[in-house]
Amino acid sequence: MSEEKNHLSLMKILDAAESFLALRLILDAAKKISDFSRPFSNADDLFTDKKSFDAVCMNFVVIGEMVERISDKFKLKYSTIDWKNIKGLRNIIAHDFFGVDAEEIWSIVKLHIPALIESIQKITK
Asked: Residues 49, 40: contact at Cβ < 8 Å?
């Protein structure tokens, strides 16, 4: 029984470590999105700069991939973060890149990325 408890404790530690690492990578990608979009004043300007638009979209994909690495228990604990829609955006970008709406991306960058950064920073402190 003791060995089983030790195994469960180790699994909890590993899950927490993997979730924490994923959060750090999400934070890094969110900051990149903010940095890459900062020079632009609207969606059209960002979309016109293909390198910046692609870089922003790629970092949304990174964020979505990292969400998959966070344990369900952890996601439930921090349910104020909309994990499902974050992953959904990743799927849209990855599977329908040419159908991505620049206005929607811009809206997410301006309205949701600052809040995501703030939330992740609070969790990881």
From this structure: yes
Considering the entire predicted model, what is its pTM?
A: 0.88
Q: Which of 52, 18, 50, 49 is nearest to 32 (CA)?
A: 52
What range does the domain containing 112 cover? 2-124
CB 48 within 8 A of CB 73: no
pLDDT one-digit tens code per residue, 8-41: 566 677 778 889 999 999 999 999 999 999 999 9
First-to-last alpha carbon distance for the chain, in angstroms, is 35
Q: Residue 56 in 3-state DSSP?
A: helix
How many structural domains compose the chain?
1
In order of 33, 47, 53, 61, 105, the CA distances from 39 in angstroms are: 11, 12, 12, 21, 15
3-state SS assignment for residue 101: coil
Crossing angle of helices 83-95 and 50-68, in 10° steps, is: 130
